[in-house]
Each structure stands twice: as C-alpha cells, then as structure tokens.
Amino acid sequence: MASLDDPGEVREGFLCPLCLKDLQSFYHLQSHYEEEHSGEDGDVKGQIKSAVRSHLSDFKKHRAARIDHYVVEVNKLIIRLEKLTAFDRTNTESAKIRAIEKSVVPWVNDQDVPFCPDCGNKFSIRNRRHHCRLCGSIMCKKCMELISLPLANKLTSASKDSLSPHTSPSQSPNSVHGSRRASISSVSSVSSVLDEKDDDRIRCCTHCKDTLLKREQQIDEKEHTPDIVKLYEKLRLCMEKVDQKAPEYIRMAASLNAGETTYSLEHASDLRVEVQKVYELIDALSKKILTLDLKQDPPPHPNTLRLQRMIRYSATLFVQEKLLGLMSLPTKEQFEELKEKRKQEVERKKILERRATLESQQRLEERRSDLVSHATNGEVVSLRGGPAPLRKAEGWLPLSGGQGQIEDSDPLLQQIHNITSFIRQAKAAGRMDEVRTLQENLRQLQDEYDQQQTEKAIELSRRQAEEEDLQREQLQMLREREREREREQFQAASLHMRTRSLDFREIRPFQLEPGREPRNHLAHALDLGCSPAPSSAAPKTPSPSLALEPIRVWSGPPALGQEFFPQSTTSQHNEVPSLNPFDEEDLSSPAAEGTASPPAAEPSLGPPACVLKEYNPFEEEEEEEAVAGNPFTSPDSPAPSPFDEEDGHPHQRPSGPPVPGNPFEEAPCTNPFEVDSESGQEGEEPIEEELLLQQIDNIKAYIFDAKQCGRLDEVEVLTENLRELKHTLAKQKGGAD
Amino acid sequence: MNVVFAVKQYISKMIEDSGPGMKVLLMDKETTGIVSMVYTQSEILQKEVYLFERIDSQNREIMKHLKAICFLRPTKENVNYLIQELRRPKYSIYFIYFSNVISKSDVKSLAEADEQEVVAEVQEFYGDYIAVNPHLFSLNILGCCQGRNWDPVQLSRATQGLTALLLSLKKCPMIRYQLSSEAAKRLAECVKQVITKEYELFEFRRTEVPPLLLILDRCDDAITPLLNQWTYQAMVHELLGINNNRIDLSRVPGISKDLREVVLSAENDEFYANNMYLNFAEIGSNIKNLMEDFQKKKPKEQQKLESIADMKAFVENYPQFKKMSGTVSKHVTVVGELSRLVSERNLLEVSEVEQELACQNDHSSALQNVKRLLQSPKVTEFDAARLVMLYALHYERHSSNSLPGLMMDLRNKGVSEKYRKLVSTVVEYGGKRVRGSDLFSPKDAVAITKQFLKGLKGVENVYTQHQPFLHETLDHLIKGKLKENLYPYLGPSTLRDRPQDIIVFIIGGATYEEALTVYNLNRTTPGVRIVLGGTTVHNTKSFLEEVLASGLHSRSKDSSQVTSRLASRR
C-alpha cells in the first residue's frame, strides 16, 4: 500500500482490483479473488449473486381478488350494524325494532330452513328459529351469537373511545315486556319473539360475529403500540448514533495518540463523552426492556420474556463489542509530548536511518525518561484547579502499562516514590501550595503503607481462620434462607425477586436469566451459539475464597480501629446494588427493602449478595449508578486511583493520590442524566469511589462467570484481584476519615 | 462457488429486505439446520432477529410488534401451516421465502388465506441444502436408496437440493453420471427435467466453459467411508460424529456441563478453520501452541496482577480472554477425547492395517495382520468388523480368499451378529459386481508406475496413504480423460474443453476425506473450482446404517434382489 502513496509508480499485471496485490497469473488472480473477496463482492455489485424468484405479483393478484370480496363483506356488515344501532333501541317498541331490523336485511323464510345450518338440529316449537340481524340467515338458539352495543359502536366508529357504553345497562328491557307480547303478529315467527327484547345487543350468526371480531382485533392492533416497541425504537436510535460517532471518534483518537495534529483534543474528548453517554443510555434502555412487565400478574408469555432477554443480550453484545474498541485519549500534556515525540522521531528517523541497532536502544532509554516526565507533568496539572477540563482526556499510553512498577512491585511504595519526586519538582518550580498538598499526600501514603503492612499480617492470621469464616458464612446463609422462605410465603410475587436477591444462592437462577438463558434458548432453537451455556442450575458451592472475600476485607479494618466508619458505609452502599436487579422499576414497593434487610444480616450479607448479583458486567455499571451520589468522599484518596474500565488512564495509576478533582472522569460512568448538573468539585470524589466500586463489581461478575464455566484458576486470579481492589477501596475510605 | 457464502447471502438478503424493527425468524426443521450452518447467534442478533420459531410450534404468542421472516421448504405441510398462520396472523407483517420452487396453486391458496394483507413478500430463495464447508454441502438424507434404486421421496428431495444448489451458484451445468449406477442416472434425469421445466430460472450469463455436474454413486467406492480418519474434521466426525457442526460430547467421561455439546464451525472459530484439514499430529502441536499462547495471555499465579494497571489491563482484555479460553477448552476437550479414543481402541494399529487393506495388494500380509488384530482384545467389535469388511471388499475374488475363516474369528471374538451380517451386506452394496470401475488395481501404465514408485519410496504417513477413489475420478475429469463409456453425458452435447466449475454429487453420501481431497484439488489446480455434495456426509457408522437401510441383504437373497431390481428397472 505504501507504494500507492507514491504517485510516480504505475503498477501493472494481474492486480486484484480490491487489494491491488499482484497475483502473477489469471488463475491465481481468480482464485485469490474467490478466496479473499468472495465475501465482499456482494456489496460491490450491489445485488445478490444467487438466483431468486419472486411470486409477489402473483400473490397480490390472487389476494386482491379475495380481499375485495372480504372487504365488501366486512363493510356490508358494518353498514348494517350502523343502521341497527342508529336509533334508540331502548325506547323503541320491539315491533318497530323488528320492522327496522327487517328493513336492514331481508330475513330468510322460516319454512325454507327446517334444520339449523350450523348444528343440524331440527327446528321445532322448542328449538326455535333465530334470525341473524346482519345477514338474515337462520340458526338455532345455541348457534346464535350476540353483539353488544358497545362493541357495535366500536366497530362502526372504528375508535376505541366508543367502548364506553352509549346506553346505560341499567335500563332493563323488562319495562317493555308487555308491549312485545302484544306485538306477536305471525305464528310462524313466534319463536323469534318469545325471548326478551334485544335492546342492548344484536343477534347474529357465528359467521358474521367472526368477521366482526377479526375486524375488532385489527382496530385494536392499529392503535396499540406496546411499551417494548417504544423503548426498542429508542434503543435502535442510540445504536445508530454510536455506529455513526464511534468510528469518527476512533479515527480521532488514533490520530491523536499517534501525535498527529489533524484533530483537536477538546473536540475528541467531547465526542468521547457523547459516545459514552449513548452507551449508558443503551444499557439503561435495554435493561428496562429486560424487566418490562416482569411483575405483571399473569406473567408474560415465555416468548415475550425470551424476546426481552434477547434484546438485552444483543444490546450487551453491542456495547461490549463497541465499547472495548473505544480507545482513550492522551491528556493535553501527553499530547504535547506525543507531538514532540513524533516530531523527534521523524527527525531521528532521518538521521539515524543507518544506525538501526543503536536507535532502538536509544529509543528505549528515551521512552523511559519520557515516562517519568509524563507522570510528573500529569500530576502537577491535576492538582491545579484550572486546566481540569483537559484532564478528562487523560489516557493510557500503550507503553505505560508494564513499566510503572520497574522499581517497586508494591503500588504504594511506588506512589510514595513518585510523590517524593513530585515534591522535589514542585519545590523547584516554587509552587508552595502544591508542595503542601503533595506532602499531605505523602504522609497519608506512608500511613497507608504502614497500615497495609499491618493488614498483611492480619491477613495471614485471617487465613487460618478461613475455615471458621466459611462455616459462619454458610450458617448465616442458611439462616437467611430460612427467613427467606418464611417471608416468601406472604410476600407478593412482585416483591419476591427483590427479597431473594439478598440470598445470593437463591438468586442465581434469576440472575442467570438475562445473560445466560438467551444463549441457551437460542442454542436449543437454532443451534447457532458457539457453545451452549450450562443450565442455569448453578452448583450450590460458592468457592470458599469467594464467600470469604468480603468478610476478610470487612473484618480487616476494625482491627485497625480507624476504618470503622468507612466500612459500614460501604456495606450500605453495596447493599443497594444487591437489592438492585429490579430496583429501577420497583420504586413502588420500598417496604420490601426494609423487610429484606434485617440489620443483623446486613454487614455480612450485603457484600456476598453483591458478589453474585449479576453475571453481566454491564449490568453492574448501571447498578452502580445508584451509588453515584455517594456522599462519603475521600478527598485525598491516598490509594491508587480507581481504574475505570471504559475510560482507562494508565497515568493515573502512578499518580493516583491527587487525581480526585477531575470533573470529567465521572462523565463516562455516571448516569447520563446526572452528568450535566455535576460540575463542581464537590461531586467529584464520590465518582472515584464509584469507579472503584464498579470495578469491584465487574471483577465479581467475572469471578461468577468464571466459576460458572468451571475455570477455577481464573477464579483464583480474579479473587486475588478483587481482594486488592477492596483493600484499595477500604484505604480510600480510610483516607477520607 | 462457495456454498456457505451462497446460503448466507440468501439469509442476509431476507433479513435486510424486511427493514428495521424487531424480527422473528419462522422456520421448519430443515431450514433451521440450513440457517444455523451459516449464521451464528450473535451475528443474527445484530440484524435484529431476536426470536427463532418453528412454523409447526403451537405455542407461539401473538406478537404484533414483530415482523416475521418465514424461511420454509415448500412442502405441502409447510404451506398448510402457513395458511393457518395467515388466517390468524401472529405477527404484524410476513416476509415469506421458500427454499425452492413453489407451485402456483400453493401461492394462490396462500394469497387467499391472507385476508388481512399481512404478507409483504413471497419469494423463492434457493438455500435448500446444508452448507457444511465452502466447497461441501449435504442434504442430510440418511438411507436414500431402497435396494439399488431411489426411495422416491428422497429422490425428489435430492433433486430439489441439487437444483437449488445450481441456482444458488448460478450454474446451468452439463450433466455426467456414473453409468454403473441406476440411481445416478435417475437423479441426473430428474435434475435435467427441472432445468428444462424452469428454463427461465436457469438462464444465467453463459461462461466460456459450461459448468459440469457429475453424479456418482457411493457403491462405487465403499472403501473410503470404512476407513479411520486422521485429519481433524474427518476424525472428529469418525470418532465423535458431527451433526450440523455440532458435536455431542456428553459421553465423554468427566465432561463439564458447558462442553456437553460443542459447535465446530470454520466460520467463527479461527483455530478450527486453520486446523480442520491438518492431521492429528499437527493438531496436537497446534493445540499446544494455542495453550501456550493462552497461558501467556492469562495472568498466572506467579505473575500476579500486582498493580491496578495490570488488573485493569486484565479486565479490559477479559472478554477476549474469555472467548479465547472458550476456544481453548473446547479444542483441548475434543482433541483430548480423540486421543483417548485412539489409544483405547488401538486405532493407530487398526488404521495401519486398514490402510494396507485399502492401498496395497499383498494378500498374505494383509490377512495375517487382520487375523492378528482380531485376536487383540483392545480392538472393538466395530473396528474388527470394519477390518473384515475392508478385507472382504478388497480380496473378494482373490484365489485364496479366506473370508469364512475371518468370519469365524469374528464370531469367536464375540462380534454381534448385526456386524457379522453387515460384512456380506457391505460386499453386496459395494462389491466388485456393482462397481463400475476398479477400485484396487491400477488401470493404466502411469498409475502402475506411480504405485511402483510409491512402493519404492515408502509412504510418508502410513495412516493417510489412502486417496479416495474420487481423487482419481476428478483428476481424470480435470484432465479431460474421464471415460465417456463409464461416465456418459446426459443429452447429446459434450464438453470439449477442460472443465472449470465442477459440482460432484455422491448418492449415498460423501465423506470428509473426500471433502479434503476436493479442498486440496481446489488449492492445487488453478482455474478449477470443485464443489462436493452428498445425500449426507458419512462416517463409518452412518455409512453402515445407510448400507443397512438400503435393504440389501447377504447373498442368500441375492437372486430375489436381482429380480426385484430388474423389475424396478423395467
């Protein structure tokens, strides 16, 4: 392709028209085209390659003939119905009604029909003849149908409003009974007259009624748009938006990350925020679809539920697929450096072309030094209030991932080193206020480190007590479930899901449904899936390490005394998501929450429920929104900065502590509707925590997932991660104190 | 000439044509299989198809907010279901696609049922076959023949499948068939008939060299489906069985729940696509590489995620990692099970003797080896029976044929009567008397020299020395040397040039070994594109079922068979 940029070159030979590869011979070219591009050329040619044949015109011709007949039939009935209901039936004598009815459609002669045409029974004095008021045919009483006036009105006015009855049903026909008897005029039709007067309904045959009912159904459907359709349309709109914007953003980000100056950084970050908001919306909408009508009393048809799950699943797939491709942006400082580097590199390339080996070495060195200065600069700026808007763009450089901990494996130690160096630099720059802040940070960090060491020791002893913990945990579970069962007996169906969510073992089948079941279903229905998921009946053995995890974490801090407060707040926060799955729609029944969380079970039960809350990582994100407004902030969170999955900032890691004051970081992860209102410094810290929480939840989801798939080694690794994360969180809270 | 692509294009087209909105795909049993071979669940979800329903399922809810795409075979049954559906429509609008030619009267009765005007499209999309590989298709018909002649139902299905294939590839071919097979001739005539009748459909842009349809009969080569296979796809089918890309692993000891049934599809499994034609040894090393690759990506206990950055990177990569781990565990399980079966059933040794029986002509050594293996307790009755079948087929007319002795050995080994009877049935099915060409002894000087040289050099791989007879047939066909007296043209016109686009159809089922042969021919012969099809794709087990279903019996009933055959030929 490089040769293409060179305008001077003209290529000839057996070139592939699509990729311009020289294939040497006709045969090679043909086979190359078949192999490489056979999938593409459908679009190239703009039309299907294979043969088709349409029968539509034929079909329409036949249908038109039929439809004409059908429509005429229906219209005829409706017109007659209109005539039959046009006058006030209640206040009209039955003789007169009969006259009108007979004028609408000629009645079939009684003598012509000795047997009921529908059931074949012979007519007699007991089995009398009835006339259809709409077509005039005769049937017996058993085969007779009635059309109520409201229905008639609805059909004639073709509007739902007319469902409210015109004539009040209280006006009973009894009052006119006498007159009807008097109106007997012919012996032959005596049978038809002996019943009550039809002042609120119209007699007809099954065929006419059938036709009219079909018509009614059509009317109904025309007017009714189910909620799912409305939500779904919104969802699709969002997806289209992403499809439009995401490639644009990726182009920008790629260009910016390469140090090019084609696009402006601000523009790109705006776009990023915009795209991420749309993702949030997609997630929220699809979740709403998932839980639509779930608590309705008769429960929706399984197919409806399947549809909802599939929509949710595909939205999840969509978000997963696209979101992961959304690379991050460099900060302004990084960007400057990137630009600089690119310039340098271009120059260097020219100079050092012949010394390739030397160059590679040099670059390595350069990069290392770059890294240090990056981190430093990023740090200093983030402390200042001013240029905050840019910081939201802080991104990870590809090289920054592994190199951070060359010196120290412990992030805290590393942080301490970093901060020390920042202080030095800040001093050199004469920024005393920053030095102060940094020193404060340093102090906290050191505290933190000590604390961590202590905790490690505690951790060791914990491990010995693990068996015990597990038993306790299980006991609690059992007790909880016992309580659960009692509660379930008198709780309404709509509440029971929520209640259950407290007991993570119980909830599993439910949790599995959204993510997993669709796959299952499909695998059965279509066998398309790659590998069918296991049935949702999860094994009842939560790995001990997992079950213990929260306890270990929560029991750590009290030993240290100082962290008691943050612990309890967190457990409360965790509880919100644990109750969550249906929280959004379930505002109507707050009572359940109260009953569902007996205080005794609270601290220990919250976290585990949360662990298994959802297997879908994207569900977590949303649930976290509930936590977004977290008032428990950690102003100088000494722990490494939380890492937001969507919005990776590798540079924050080494430069963790002072990061909090960044108003833009929250944008990708908060509720899209909250973002705009939150611009002050106040709202920022909770976000950090939220990110952390979110991450924890993500990892928990992965653990759950991995466990479901029986990959125990992964579970272990993830559990390890989780523990570390929780430490971080706990520490952050400690810092807030 | 890519059948997977052809079918996929049809499906994509019907989904696209229905426009935006939630969709349900209404299918019958067969079209469900057809669709599932070319589309994955997530792919089709992206196109807003959220539900998949069978037209014959009674438990469907009215969902007027869905559009229905109906992809159905044009059977009487389906038309009736559709008529009922249209009378009381469950969905807002119907896009109807038949997988084959539908009669005008059926269209009329459908039109008359559509009183609510819900039908927006009625088309024929000729995706009426199972696209297994890009160059391999199947009709999933097991037991296509009664005696030596077609089961009339299956004949019509095969005709439909083949004509649909031709239409989907836009080919209006010249037809050649195997003279020795009555069934081949019959099918060729039926296909020709359809082409003549639907000449409008078959009016494609003329290519310089017209495409060629070659119809063969399995009974000309009963050896290939009896051999153990050593390339991945073929081996999996032989030992585990592939059914519409799905593999049932539920009988594997200690299998985990989510691996009970796995899907092997070259369309969305890169590892499989790259390895399906490689032999077992190569797969072993590739699996190892895959594992190592996986291990590298996977954070180990030792290199714990020490910083949040590591963790973040890990979590970000997790979905990919998970996907990969799914692939790894799937293939590791499958290959593990294969090697377990290989050692448990002593298949290396069995296969070596099989290959000797199939490819060499040393009777005494072959007999000795078969006898030796029949004594081995590790050899299953199934493998023992197939060894004897191979022997019986090869040395059917050999002067010192000792089949009775081997049958005694089988009996002594405790092989069930079913298998023992099958030996003579297989000979009846594919013995010398039925074969149109000689399967074993080389026919011309070149071939004799080749084999001689081969004998001198020794073979590179004893387990894969066998070349299906199809290879020779196609080789001759490509070189323009395929004898017209054995494979005549249907109709007066003949092909003067070397053929370029070739469609081979094997009545009685193709095999994955033959698919591999075709794959290699496509690769190595520039300008020639071959598509292979069969009434089904066999492994030994299904082939024996096919033989059994054909109703041929051992020689005692031979005479009656011959007379009935004559009678049916008339």
From TrEMBL, chain A:
Q: What InterPro entries does the record tag this protein with? A: Rab4/Rab5_effector (IPR052727), Rbsn_Rab-bd (IPR021565), Rbsn_Rab-bd_sf (IPR036531), Znf_C2H2_type (IPR013087), Znf_FYVE (IPR000306), Znf_FYVE-rel (IPR017455), Znf_FYVE_PHD (IPR011011), Znf_RING/FYVE/PHD (IPR013083)
Protein name (Swiss-Prot/TrEMBL): Rabenosyn-5 isoform X2
Cite the PROSITE patterns for this sequence: ZF_FYVE, ZINC_FINGER_C2H2_1, ZINC_FINGER_C2H2_2
Q: Name one GO molecular function term.
A: zinc ion binding
What Pfam families does the record point to? FYVE, NPF, Rbsn
The coiled-coil regions, if any, are: 428-487
Q: Which residues form the C2H2-type domain?
A: 14-42
Q: Which segments carry the region annotation Disordered? A: 158-188, 526-689
Question: Where along the chain is composition biased (Acidic residues)?
Answer: 617-626, 675-689
Q: Where is the composition biased (Polar residues)?
A: 158-177, 565-577
Its keywords, alphabetically, are: Coiled coil, Metal-binding, Zinc, Zinc-finger
Where's the FYVE-type domain? 110-213
Q: Which organism is it from?
A: Physeter macrocephalus (Sperm whale)
User: Where is composition skewed (Low complexity) in this entry?
Assistant: 531-547
Automatic annotation (TrEMBL), chain B:
**Any idea where this protein resides?**
Endosome membrane; Golgi apparatus membrane
Indicate where this protein is primarily found.
Answer: membrane
Give the GO biological process terms.
protein transport; vesicle-mediated transport
Q: What's in the GO CC field?
A: endosome membrane; Golgi membrane
Give UniProt keywords alphabetically. Endosome, Golgi apparatus, Membrane, Phosphoprotein, Protein transport, Transport
Q: How does it sit in the membrane?
A: Peripheral membrane protein
Query: Family assignment?
Result: Belongs to the STXBP/unc-18/SEC1 family.
Q: What does this protein do?
A: May play a role in vesicle-mediated protein trafficking from the Golgi stack through the trans-Golgi network.
The entry's protein name is: Vacuolar protein sorting-associated protein 45
Q: Which organism is it from?
A: Physeter macrocephalus (Sperm whale)
| Gene designation per UniProt | VPS45
